[in-house]
Write a structure and sequence with these properties.
By secondary structure, this protein is an all-alpha fold. The chain is built from 6 helices and no strands. The mean pLDDT is about 85.
């Protein structure tokens, strides 16, 4: 059980870092390729959730995470589009955070979306904490049956 909880916590930390990238993007801080908005199944958290995490899919606490996680990616993509869709910035420019042509109005709109993203993220973290508590409640033998 210790290993599954460690992986769950690692996935949660990856989620928190990824959320921070949205803020960096808004402020024009360069980001890496793995930090751009991607499909919800491909981010570090999604990779765990839709791979190893599937062992926990019989638990309602696990199932409760999917919808907000998907919503989080939708919001992140909305932020990305606000900042770059109408701009003449190459894909490479997007990767390195070029944002010289972003208007203050667009930044404000993106920041408002980010506040929503933060709320969804807090919900995900709370649900992950609930899942961890459930695993601890089940104990070693019950968790072993899931795996």
């Amino acid at each position: 059980m210790k290993e599954i909880i460690q992986k769950l916590r690692k996935a949660k930390m990856a989620h928190k870092r990824w959320v921070g990238h949205a803020s960096a993007l808004i402020e024009g801080i360069p980001i890496e390729k793995d930090q751009v908005p991607i499909n919800y199944t491909d981010c570090a958290f999604g990779s765990w959730y839709y791979d190893e995490g599937q062992n926990l899919s019989s638990l309602q606490e696990y199932k409760n995470i999917e919808d907000p996680h998907t919503k989080l990616h939708v919001i992140y993509m909305e932020i990305f589009k606000i900042l770059f869709e109408k701009k003449k910035v190459s894909f490479f420019g997007k990767l390195i955070g070029k944002s010289a042509t972003i208007s203050e109005a667009d930044k404000q709109l993106a920041r408002a979306k980010f506040r929503t993203l933060e709320e969804v993220s807090k919900s995900i973290v709370n649900k992950l904490d609930t899942l961890e508590a459930k695993l601890k409640q089940l104990g070693e033998q019950e968790v072993a049956k899931l795996l």
